[in-house]
Amino acid sequence: MDSLQFGRRFGQLVGFVFAAHGDHPTKPSKAVRKWDGQTPYAVHPLWCATMLLAEPALPEDLRVRGSEALLLHDVLEDTAEELPAGTPEEVAGLVQDMTFASSDAEMVEVWSKSDEVKLLKLYDKVSNLLDGSWMSAEKRQKYAAYTLRLADYVEPVYGQLNITRIARTICE
Length: 172
Known about the structure:
Oligomer: single chain
CATH topology: Hypothetical protein af1432
Number of domains: 1
CATH architecture: Orthogonal Bundle
Helix content: 55-70%
Radius of gyration: 15 Å
CATH superfamily: Hypothetical protein af1432
CATH class: Mainly Alpha
Largest sheet: none
Order of helices and strands: HHHHHHHHH
């Protein structure tokens, strides 16, 4: 896929994600971010996806595939929507593997998933911590420990990345 095709597809997915979270959340609170109750929820997957796209140390195919999966990663959990038609099988598989019954289940089950899923979950958790002012001290500590564990796992596999640096800065 050339950059123009990717740009068009990415733009379409951004529109889909904003509509899915804004118009079809499983409950009204899922339409906005918890920290202010106003920011559209879709800002979170968009942040995750663009941060991955901007990571020069990762191969382009992983950044493209991963950015699409990150855009869509909360659609199945938090909206009444299915993945859009034409979602590549490998992207749909990543989204499925990033979908868990609860955050506690995720923290156990993620370790049986692929290295790529662990990398993508690191982007997800860093974003959650960056706007996690709503978290109790206990929840934030638990999230931070999990995020550091993901960073510790990801770094030997993918090398030092911007996301691992950010994770260490906000968690330590």
